[in-house]
Structures are given as C-alpha cells and as structure tokens.
Specification:
This protein has 259 residues and is α/β, with parallel strands linked by helices. It has a single domain, classed as Spore Coat Polysaccharide Biosynthesis Protein SpsA, Chain A. Helices cover 33% and strands 21% of the residues. It is built from eight helices and eight strands. The chain has an eight-stranded mixed β-sheet, with helices on both faces. The longest helix is centred in the C-terminal third of the chain and has 19 residues. The protein is globular, with a radius of gyration of 17 Å. The model has no long low-confidence stretch (mean pLDDT 92).
Length: 259
Amino acid sequence: MNVTVYIITYNQCEIVTRTIRGLFGQDYPSDQYEIIVLNDGSDDNTLDRLQTLARKSPVPMLVLNCAHEADYLSAKRWNQCIAAASATSQVFIQVDDVRLRPDFVRQHMKWHEKGPWFLVTGAKYEGPTETWDLSSCRRARLAGPNGEASETTFFTAVWGASMSFSRRLMERVYRPPYESPYDEQMSGWGFHEVEMACRMKKAGAQIVYDPAAGVFHEDHSPESEARRRLNREKLVRMGIKNNEQYLLGKHSLTELPRW
C-alpha cells in the first residue's frame, strides 16, 4: 500500500532534520511511501536544509514552503500537505518534530492493511533524553496487557505526532471549504487532531492506541522555544480557551471525554 508521511515545521532545523533522517531509515518498502514536509516560513536554515535532504532522499520527498501567517496555523498547513500528496497514496501518516524508530511506518501500516476504517495513534514517549519506556507516556494506561495495542473509544486520545488514517476514512469527513479534512476554522495551539478524530469516530472509525507506533518527543525547553520565538505557555492557554470551546460547541458536547 502506498502511504504519504507528512510533517509541518517552523524554526526547528536540527530537530526536523533528525526526523527526516529517521524517515529515510524506515524498513517499509522505499517505493511505497513518500515524504511531504511543509516549512511554515522558518527564518533559520530550515528551508535550505530540507531542500538538501530532498535531493539526497532515498524516497520521493516534496518540500513545500509558505509564508508564516500565524503561529500554529496547523489545520491549514496539514490540509496543504494532504492536497499535495500523490493520488496513489491510500494512507496518510502525520508526524511531528520527533524521533522515530525504523519500524515506525510499518507499525502504522499493519493496521491499514487490515481494513480502511482504522484511526491509529501511537504512544508519545517523552522526557529530556530519548527513552522508549512506556512508563514515560502519559497515555500509557490506554495500552492493553503488556503494553500491547488496544482499541479505545476516546477520540481525545488521538494526537498528531503519530497518527494515521486511510484515504477512504478521510473522504468520509472531507467537507470543503473548511474541513479538508482538518477544520480550518480552528487556529492556534491544540485540538485540531482531536476535532477531526471526533468526526472520524462518528463516521465509523475504529480508534487504536498502539505503543509500537510511538515516537519520542523531547521536552520543550526555554531555549528551544526562544529559537522559535514562541510564548508557548501563552499559546497553550489561548488554544485551550478557544479551540476546546469551539470543539465543544461544534459537536454539542458539555465536556471532552477524559482518558
């Protein structure tokens, strides 16, 4: 099955470089996946680095470049990635500026080979140094016995640094001009993937939490946020206030289900 792995990045040159090299080293057939990276107007060396990586890529790699309109304009940027994907791609994998294991793509694809209605989210291993210990994951309790994959009813468990879905599932929730498939009426930090997961669940998606499809996310630091010139704490507060309330209103919910 053909798959598109897509990522957006902003002023994280070294981190996204590591992610892309991780995608180069996947054990999934190299003629069956492509990489799309959208540079959201970085003013460091990110664009030059991505273009250099694309020339050396062992798999098809497309670099998109946009002017930086606003912080965390994620829904619009992810939609642009999907719109640029090959027409032959049957599955989409969203990833963030994270570290990957060589079987990352394969662990996602094993679900989609079973059928088109899976929405897969991987574990988020996190800390100041790289670890693959499930105890480092805040959502570890969603896993099955011995850390195995498990189906969940919580659409709030879905997060975008390791998430995949089929084209057929996406088409069930694709409603332009805004839901293409992410809802572009949402802007700022957070809840973009959760809102889309809510719609996919209503459309019949089987949500799977799979630690084997997990990624390592290094803790944010004042230094890393300074390089991006983001006040992340403020942006998170605003995102919770605006996007969570938008999601609740849109889907007639009084509160989000807590896993």
